[in-house]
Design a protein that fits this description.
By secondary structure, the protein is of the alpha+beta class. It is built from two helices and eight strands, in the order H-E-E-E-E-E-E-E-E-H.
């Protein structure tokens, strides 16, 4: 019986995905409340409420991560590497506010063209060539600072 139910659900989801995309899925809750996203896409980049000083490089269900470009500056720009420091901001969808600030550093090896974003006091670094949104935000940041 359970196998039949699972098969019917998979079939229903498959048919719904090929047909009318507005059909409610079984896991969606029914609500009459309209949800307005605080993220606005401008030239292919997401911004917090359309403010071009806050590009978003990662988004989840309850929070999204962006940069505060007003804090950005070039720490080092020589023949081998480019280092840009900027404030990283976590925004809450539920409270519609910035809930956490941190410091991020972009490091680009000019010889290879590889760039990474690292967080202060954390061993975690993200490669810009593996994350499309981060890559777009990084090049937007470079244009904002007028850096090659």
């Amino acid at each position: 019986m359970l196998k039949k139910i699972l098969i019917m659900m998979v079939l229903g989801l498959t048919v719904a995905s090929f047909g009318n995309m507005n059909l409610p899925m079984p896991f969606e809750r029914c609500t009459n409340i309209a949800y307005a996203s605080p993220l606005q896409k401008i030239d292919g980049i997401l911004f917090w409420h359309g403010d071009m000083n806050y590009p978003i490089y990662d988004s989840g269900n309850k929070f999204c991560n962006g940069l505060d470009l007003s804090s950005a500056y070039v720490a080092n720009d020589d023949a081998n590497e480019l280092i840009i420091k900027v404030a990283s901001v976590n925004f809450s969808f539920t409270d519609d506010v910035a809930v956490d600030y941190g410091n991020a550093t972009f490091k680009e090896d000019k010889r290879t063209g590889k760039a990474y974003m690292c967080f202060e006091n954390s061993p975690y670094c993200s490669s810009t060539d593996r994350e499309i949104m981060l890559n777009d935000v990084y090049y937007y940041l470079k244009c904002y600072l007028q850096v090659q």
